[in-house]
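#struct-help
A.M.: can someone run this one for me? Single chain, 763 residues.
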Amino acid sequence: MRKAIIEFSIKRPWVVIGITVLITAFFAMQFPKIKIDTDPQNMLETNEPTRLFHAATKDNFNLYDFIAVGIVAEPTAFTPDQLNRVYRITAEIADLDGVIADDIMSISMVDDIKQGDGGSIVIEPLMEDEISTDAEAKHIYNRIMNNPILRGKIASDDGKAVAIFIPIESKKISHRLSTQIKEITDSLGGNAEYFIAGLPLAEDSFGAEMFKQMAISAPAAMAIIFLLLFLFFRQIKIVIAPMVVAMMSVIWAMGLLIYTGNTVHIMSSMIPIFLIPISVLNSIHIISEFHDHYKKYKHKASTIEHSINELFVPMLFTSLTTVAGFLSLALTPIPPVRVFGIFVAFGIVVAWFLSLTINPAIAMLISDKTLRNFGKSDEEHGILAKVMHSFRNFTRKYYKLIISSFAVIMVIAAVGLSLIVVNDNPVKWFKKSHPIRIADAAMNKHLAGTYMNYLVFESDDEGAMKSPELLNYMLRIQKELAKDKTVGSTTGVTDIVKKIRYELYSEDSTKMVIPENPKEIAQLLFLFEMSGGDPDDLFKFVTPEYDKANLWVQLKDGDNMAVSAVVDRGNKFIKDNPPPVGVIVKWAGLPYINIEWQNQMVSGMQKSLASSFIVVFLMMIFLFRSFKWGLFSMLPLTITVMAIYAFIGFIGKPYDMPVAVLSSLTLGLSIDFAIHFIQRLRMIYKRTKNFDESFDEIFEGTGRAITRNVLVISIGFVPMLFSTLVPYITVGSFFLAIMIVSGLVTMLLLPALTQMFKRTLFK
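D.P.: on it. Structure tokens below:
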């Protein structure tokens, strides 16, 4: 098979190129059919209980995802001019397509509960029209401060900030609406500062920006890789081949993903960035081998055959091990991660096949005149050769020091690994200087929070939520949750009952409690429904049958660790203090969904990494027919993973979605160098029967090829470090770290180990 592929590519280069171009065109034609999905909620299976319950909660209580607009004014936002601006801005926002106008929470649209004539309850708009006096502004402020349903939510206690919470039909329109809202605030806002935040906005905006970043980062990486290859080999026609292989691999993988009906999620959007470096690795090895031997053969076909024959086995196994690493992601419980792993693995197989066909085909079309001086630019005096000679001399002389140093590094790394914390927050996928991050920080500083969880109480009995026992139980949970600094506010039917009773008793604070008589509770709630307010406001907190109640838990921090702490506090209280008989308490909300898929992803990634590590180890033993060689080949991978993740632990960077998935990339790239080094060293020794001579030679062609790969990939992805999106910066940093660390371990530790164990390794 190998011989047939090589001969066909050499003898019929135009046929090979024509066939691959046609296949590439077919997959490229699928791109207009692309379906994009940036909703992290879809990280969970569609039948996942947490996801189903969240959807049911939104349906039962008629809830929508929301965008939050914050207005901060010094010394106070409660002036006639500023409140009138908020009034006009709210009216403009209410007319936007996709906004649920009736459910907007704003000073000009929420209802206030107060005492009417004859001891009745009146529910009317807090700010029914524009105002003209400071006294009116102060009255509005005081009414908010006396209302536990509104306090901290639509205005800060110091009066410097007010908020507009805008429910929307779908998270997918968040980015578009935020742009329109900004135009409104720029036009009507005056001198106050305006901030637009919210978890749906962060998620949708990331989706909009990630494709812009991909459109910049991927071509920039390709351009830099091309320039570096040209710097190494000095022939544009030669270095075109690996770029063609990379481009075709990406198109085939993404085209097949779209053709099979899969959506392009946040994860799958990164497939090109992952495939480009992996796709060019084999091509660089082939070109390096061709480069180093063309001056000997002076014949294209013979040099191509020699190069691929020498590299076929290591290239096959490096590709298979990388495929194993990414296919292991198919074992995770996260659908987008599974899709990502499967199609990256497909792209790697494509890249391996194209490396064996496109490279020879393009090489055969290059004239002998063009190749006349090819291979003469990297002799003994070349920079790479000198670097490799330094590595050779150092590892030969100080091999014991090298081995002991890496042993110490592994011990230190073990400490760093223990410091890793699992955390994520879609808002923090943006850099600190991004407007979404700035808005998030400002609004959560002044107000109750832009992250909303729900704690739902369910019973099979109608009217159960009018029970004094249950309402007092809810109050106890509210007080317990309020102890956590992340919780900015909790709101439920309890607050409505207490507020109505407070107003009925002429604002007597001692009466702001849950009545002991269920009939009185029923009367208070009936009074609320009949007092001119919108009943739907009540039914955001309790169902019309009063068999379910919804406690809003507003959070100032959306980090998974912070949200988990709140959830754990609530769960512990419920466990230690069970609710009344027949009542079930469950969590819902976007922040809660985020911690659920994060937990599943972490456990899934740990299992997939462990399984792929074992599979790769067994493959190495099979490849080298030796347990010891197999063990040594795993050291660059093991040390690279430990060192990089330990560094993450030491600097305090959270273990988030990109970091978790990058473990598979670490496995794929780190093992590549070890396979080439060991396989070629064994082949050289088989020919020379002399260890010292083999040791010297491995630092020539193979050593230079490994160094080229390290430099090309690590430098090629430096542009990603300048992205506005943190996951892309993380990916770029990992590429740099993986290549440098695994390259150094391969060229320092493996030679040192062969020096120390040469008598048993080379019998």
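A.M.: thanks! The two ends are 32 Å apart (CA to CA).
D.P.: also worth noting: Residues 204 and 359 are 41 Å apart (CA to CA).
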